Amino acid sequence: MTVDSKIFVGLKSIRKKPAPQSDTSGPRCQWDGCEKKGSHRAPVGQGGEGLYLLFCLEHIKDYNKGYNFSHAQSDPVVARYQKEAVAGQRSTMGTGVKQPTEIPMPLTTRSGSAKALNARKSAEQRKAQKAEQQARKLKVLEAKAFETLGLPQDATPAQIRLRYKERLKMHHPDANQGSRTSEDELRASIEAHKILKLNGFC
Q1: Is the pTM of this model over 0.85?
Q2: pLDDT tens digit string along 27-56?
């Protein structure tokens, strides 16, 4: 006997599917006159940040179509729900955002970013660091670089740059008819400036 034989053709299932029962447990839809379960959250809007209204699937769609953050620009029906929720005439879920009554004090805790830490350093700290850096014992190449440029060891970055420019003009081959000694002096000045720049003196 095959599945498509005459015996099976006239048979119909007599088992009926149970009608879907609406789940009445839980909160009810807050749309006026609706008895369905309110399982979808809808934001209240301006003035009710963190608060939500509960609607069924059908009414959440209607609410979302006319919703705008400001109830002044929302659909009239939706705006009424927003106003009532903010004024406390309609129950909501969630927690409202409390507006601060006082001006908040600036944070005393330090943030972890290097940029924030450096921004908070006072001028005195930076001066002390600079003085400490300049007061440290110079390495041989650094001392020789200062000597080459003809500067004291406590010279400022501006003084170093100025002297470097002066020596470039003084020992440039065009100014000395291609003299070999001035070329060597020029090369030594460039190397000295490079050493000082790499070590943070200018």
Answers
A1: no
A2: 888 888 888 888 888 887 777 777 778 888
Angle at 102 between CA 101 and CA 105, to 5 degrees: 145
Cβ atoms of 67 and 74 within 8 Å: the answer is: yes
**pLDDT average, residue stretch 114-139:** 69
- C-alpha dihedral over 38, 40, 44, 48, to 10 degrees? 90
Tokens 């740059």 -> residue: 161
| Look-up of token digits 């620009």 | 73
Beta bridge partners of 42: 53
Q: Tens digits of per-residue pLDDT, 169-197? A: 888 878 877 777 888 888 999 999 998 88
pLDDT score at 25:
67
First to last CA, the chain: 101
Conformational region of residue 34, where left means phi above 0, alpha means psi within -120 to 50, and beta covers everything else = beta
Strand order in the sheet with 93-94: 40-43, 51-55, 93-94
Place of tokens 């660091």: 129
Count of CA atoms in the C-beta half-sphere (13 A) of 145: 23
CB 157 within 8 A of CB 134: no
